[in-house]
């Protein structure tokens, strides 16, 4: 029978890289790069080839193999696997690079920061403290060749070849026989007085001083060079001098050295070291401490090394979200670290977490996701957006908190290019129609109009024809002046999507009505838009052959390139109104827009002075709504973003019923007239209007006869009558004031398009019918129970257990 011996090296689950070995440190081992055969994950493999006549070196290598296998510490090189044969020794560790090679590569790329060096030295000293104080072991080989760096920039202590027990159990220190390593021995060993050393850590602390000198100044030429600190930071020099002192008894214990360097003003007393120490103990920290840490982490990430953020901070952030209930506070640092990842890594590590976050009912998390969507939207594919994200995002349109409604509207600018036909042209348009008609917050109605103008190019031709003209016409009747401006700008931004007939018969009549608007900003934009449409009509009139070219986009399919004009025309509205709404929400989270009292002009003689009238705290002139204010508004938004966690947002699940039951009719001041119109058989309810908006075109109501905007309540003065920070008002009256006065006379008996329908009719009847049906069922059930009780009483004879007496 034949026996075949198997090669253990060939069966080893790790293989060496064909590349030549990287800069191996002096000693018996040769460092190779390698990978695990099963998964392909990178590793480092230390190889020692057994040579005849080198029994002493072989014993040193086997001792190092044993030490590395049994010692476990975060700052000591991590052992993974090993192989020992008669011909070689293989030790597999985490993927690392020798410190000398690492420092050289970083020097070519700009050099290491003091923050990184402080943490690296902290790790080495901590490893020495573990060996000396906890294990009673002397490393005996602390130098540049014994330190390695992993992919996260963490320094690991290796080189355990010459380690021995401090208690003298295994004899004295082994002989090195390598001049490159013996130059780091302390002077008391060189002159033969090593037996007089009383402190077990003295020799290793001297070698630590040599390591510090080489880290900052390069290779150590001779021991005498230690007298000159060179480039060692001033905050570290006093402690360094203690390490390289001639008296071995004065050299501090590793634990004491760390304590001295961590003192206020010390070299290792910085934010980077504190962050690393917190991450090492994050599993035992209190939830409040974790929340505070993640809130402050985002500010520090810009100064931290990229490798550290990718390989150490990111896994902790993902773990904190998955298992630590960290909530929304991890989002900001998570997306900041995500900038360091490749597209493939982003898809694998962050996108699954983001998709899961959108299903959360935590309002703070939802609003932060919407605010920071721009950072990850490019990594989301269309199926994920339509099936896993959009169904959760649309709940924000019905939220009772105005801030969430506004951020949901603004997020549609980024989601629209990825939405499918149904979600974009049906579902989204339903929510936009409801917001524009019913939302009580003027800035949200304004932003809805702006957003519709920006995404108009993505809509289908049929939806554009049915929605855009009606929606912008409705916006021009909004009592909130910036919404009227947004309606005019919406027409101008999407001018290429209308036929010439629509321009002449639908759009220009609406714009002409705005030329007498009480607000000058609305009038100015109306005149600009009118001139633009008239010049377009005139050019086609002069040369009818241009008609096909002018109307080429009217029936064209949706195209992303058609949205450029909208973005430039309406770029002012989202940021301007956003900062305003943020202020309103912080002041009154669920109330209507904040109001402020505006000083009144003196009343004319013979008339009583009007009482101070609250007006919306919104600038109504054209200036503050222009693009030059974007920078200021963006700063206000960023400063307000960090305060969302301080609000008591509650849960979306808890308010689901109240959201469905609530009906936000902000024009309730016309309830009396609504009640009068409820009896009109031709009058449609709000519920029927929105449920059949596709078939009946609810956007298109009243565009044929645009009516002037609703006058302000009694006592409210025109915006042009106030002194908005300019020169003193003159006695000259507003030329449009007379027009406003004439409009007030007819305004009492009419209603604009915002309150045309009896929105509550069907729903009220439905609720009454259900209540009546429930009441009848309760009555019927009560009668049945009474009949059963009567039958039991009527039974003759006494009752026995389990039976009834028979006659």
Automatic annotation (TrEMBL):
GO terms for molecular function: ATP binding; protein kinase activity. Transmembrane segments: none annotated. Residues 14-314 form the Protein kinase domain. GO terms for cellular component: centrosome; COPI vesicle coat; endoplasmic reticulum-Golgi intermediate compartment. It holds the Pfam family Pkinase. Residues 764-774, 781-794 have a biased composition (Basic and acidic residues). InterPro entries: ARM-like (IPR011989), ARM-type_fold (IPR016024), CIK-Related_Protein (IPR051177), Kinase-like_dom_sf (IPR011009), Prot_kinase_dom (IPR000719). Residues 18-28, 601-617 have a biased composition (Pro residues). This is N-terminal kinase-like protein. The lineage of its organism: Eukaryota, Metazoa, Chordata, Craniata, Vertebrata.
């Amino acid at each position: 029978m034949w026996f075949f011996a198997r090669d253990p090296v060939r069966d080893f689950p790790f293989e060496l890289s064909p590349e030549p070995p990287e800069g191996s440190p002096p000693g018996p081992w040769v460092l190779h790069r390698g990978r695990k055969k099963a998964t392909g994950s990178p590793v480092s493999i230390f190889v020692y080839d057994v040579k005849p006549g080198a029994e002493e070196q072989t014993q040193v290598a086997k001792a190092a193999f044993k030490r590395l296998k049994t010692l476990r510490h975060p700052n000591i090189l991590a052992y993974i696997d090993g192989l020992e044969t008669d011909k070689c020794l293989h030790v597999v560790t985490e993927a690392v690079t020798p410190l000398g090679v690492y420092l050289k590569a970083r020097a070519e790329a700009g050099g290491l920061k003091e923050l990184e060096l402080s943490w690296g030295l902290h790790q080495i000293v901590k490893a020495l403290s573990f060996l000396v104080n906890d294990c009673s072991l002397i490393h005996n080989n602390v130098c540049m060749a014994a330190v390695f760096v992993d992919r996260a920039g963490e320094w690991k202590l290796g080189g355990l070849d010459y380690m021995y027990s401090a208690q003298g159990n295994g004899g004295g220190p082994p002989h090195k026989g390598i001049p490159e390593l013996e130059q780091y021995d302390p002077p008391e060993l060189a002159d033969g007085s090593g037996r007089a050393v009383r402190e077990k850590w003295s020799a290793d602390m001297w070698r630590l001083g040599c390591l510090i000198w080489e880290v900052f100044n390069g290779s150590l030429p001779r021991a005498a060079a230690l007298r000159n600190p060179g480039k060692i930071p001033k905050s570290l020099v006093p402690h360094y001098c203690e390490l390289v002192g001639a008296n071995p008894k004065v050299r501090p214990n590793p634990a004491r050295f760390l304590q001295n360097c961590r003192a206020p003003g010390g070299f290792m007393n910085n934010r980077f070291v504190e962050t690393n120490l917190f991450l090492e103990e994050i599993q035992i920290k209190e939830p409040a401490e974790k929340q505070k840490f993640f809130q402050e982490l985002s500010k520090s990430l810009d100064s931290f090394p990229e490798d550290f953020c990718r390989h150490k901070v990111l896994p902790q952030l993902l773990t904190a979200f998955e298992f630590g209930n960290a909530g929304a506070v991890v989002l900001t640092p998570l997306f900041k670290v995500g900038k360091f990842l490749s597209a493939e890594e982003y898809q694998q590590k962050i996108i699954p977490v983001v998709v899961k976050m959108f299903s959360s009912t935590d309002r703070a998390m939802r609003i932060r996701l919407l605010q920071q969507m721009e950072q990850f939207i490019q990594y989301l594919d269309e199926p994920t957006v339509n099936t896993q994200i959009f169904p959760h995002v649309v709940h924000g349109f019905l939220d009772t908190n105005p801030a969430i409604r506004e951020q949901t509207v603004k997020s549609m600018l980024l989601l629209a290019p990825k939405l499918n036909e149904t979600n974009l042209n049906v579902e989204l348009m339903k929510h936009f129609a409801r917001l524009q008609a019913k939302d009580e917050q003027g800035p949200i109605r304004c932003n809805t109009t702006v957003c519709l103008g920006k995404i108009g190019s993505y809509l289908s031709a049929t939806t554009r024809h049915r929605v855009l003209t009606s929606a912008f016409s409705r916006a021009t009747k909004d009592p909130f002046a910036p919404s009227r401006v947004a309606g005019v700008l919406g027409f101008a931004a999407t001018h290429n999507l209308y036929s010439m007939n629509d321009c002449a018969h639908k759009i220009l009549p609406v714009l002409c009505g705005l030329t007498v608007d009480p607000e000058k900003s609305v009038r100015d934009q109306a005149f600009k838009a009118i001139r633009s449409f008239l010049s377009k009509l005139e050019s086609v009139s002069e040369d009818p052959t241009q008609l096909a070219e002018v109307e080429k986009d009217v029936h064209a399919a949706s195209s992303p390139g058609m949205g450029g004009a909208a973005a430039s025309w309406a770029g002012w509205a989202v940021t301007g109104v956003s900062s305003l709404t943020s202020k309103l929400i912080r002041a009154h989270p669920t109330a209507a827009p904040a109001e402020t009292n505006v000083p009144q002009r003196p009343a004319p003689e013979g008339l009583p002075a009007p009482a101070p009238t609250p007006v919306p705290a919104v600038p109504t002139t054209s200036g503050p709504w222009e693009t030059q204010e974007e920078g200021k508004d963006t700063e206000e938004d960023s400063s307000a973003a960090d305060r969302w966690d301080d609000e008591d947002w509650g849960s979306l699940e808890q308010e689901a019923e109240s959201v469905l039951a609530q009906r936000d009719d902000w024009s309730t001041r016309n309830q009396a007239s609504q009640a009068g119109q409820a009896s009109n058989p031709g009058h449609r309810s709000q519920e029927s209007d929105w449920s059949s908006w596709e078939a009946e075109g609810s956007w298109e109501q009243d565009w044929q006869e645009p009516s002037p905007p609703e006058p302000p309540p009694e006592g409210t003065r025109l915006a042009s009558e106030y002194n908005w920070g300019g020169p003193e008002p003159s006695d000259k009256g507003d030329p449009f004031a007379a027009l406003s006065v004439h409009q007030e006379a007819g305004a009492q008996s009419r209603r604009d398009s915002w309150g045309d329908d009896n929105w509550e009719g069907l729903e009220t009847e439905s609720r009454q019918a259900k209540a009546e049906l429930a009441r009848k069922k309760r009555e019927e059930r009560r009668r049945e129970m009474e009949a059963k009780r009567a039958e039991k009483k009527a039974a003759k004879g006494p009752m026995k257990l389990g039976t009834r007496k028979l006659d």
